[in-house]
Design a protein that fits this description.
By secondary structure, the chain is an alpha+beta fold. 22% of the residues lie in helices and 35% in strands. The protein has one domain: 2-Layer Sandwich (60s Ribosomal Protein L30, Chain: A). The radius of gyration is 18 Å and the shape is globular.
Length: 331
Amino acid sequence: MPKSSKQFGLAYLDAGEIGAYLDKHSGHVLSVIGFGHALPLPGYAPLWVDIPVLGGHDSSIEVWTSDLPVTACEHLGISGTADGQVLFGSLTLEQHAGDTLETLAEQAYMRIFGFIDHFGYRNLLRVWHYFPQINDDENGLERYRGFNVGRHASFVANGRQIGEESVPAASALGSNSGSLVVYFMACKKRGTAVENPRQVSAYHYPKLFGPSSPIFVRAMSATLGGQYCFFISGTASIVGYETLHQGDAEKQTAETLTNIRTLLQQIPHYDPDQGRMLLKVYLRHPEHLEMVQSKVQAEFGSACKAVYLHSNICRSDLLLEIEGAYFNDTQ
């Protein structure tokens, strides 16, 4: 059970819940991210992402809170918050005529590295990326693959090694409109990277998937606010480095859940009946919602909080992707 109403953690809330929750956690809110229809939230400036919410809700609001007092910070055009252990930040870069997503990705990460270094939280734990037309061609290269080239260039320019010692958990999804939207969590202490033995590490993908590999680990663990925290990257129906079950949403869902289960089994003393599990489930086709919901509930039970979003996935042959966060204060 939670130790405190102001523990470090995460909540997914709808329009009827968000006001009271923010009031309850006043002074301890690290980040507010909204999906779907934008809502006025007095006293807060949420980062809104244009991705529709499925399952009968117009909006879903993601709120990260701390057990410690939170202060605001800003640098290099990035607005953020910090609590002495964790730093959150976000930025939005518009794509103007002549820009490429590759260029925007490099610019974004140059600023992110400058931001976290400036405030002394050098270790990226988790990064989220959203941008439109993720599978479309741009100058002869799929936009997601161009994004990976820009991200890679910034890692190299900042002297950041590309390996499990310095790579965060991450995800990249397609939005309906807007710009490159990035939000991230960094820490003063290094987290522990977790890879999936069923999969090749993303940063070791072959050139088949673009000039530069994606840069993320499959999961990241850290102890924050006296809790064991396990952040699961965007996970899909991939074994080795290949997409399995092309065109079959049911089998892709089962394979995705197997990959998540494999990650969770690496948590020391993991007990599915202990702690809290929260998921964001991205579906390429809304008609798969009921099937995926039933499989997710069968896997994790009704205690798991899951938000379902309509989004394109980073590979055109993937029909869904699931990310997660697990918290347990009994570790």
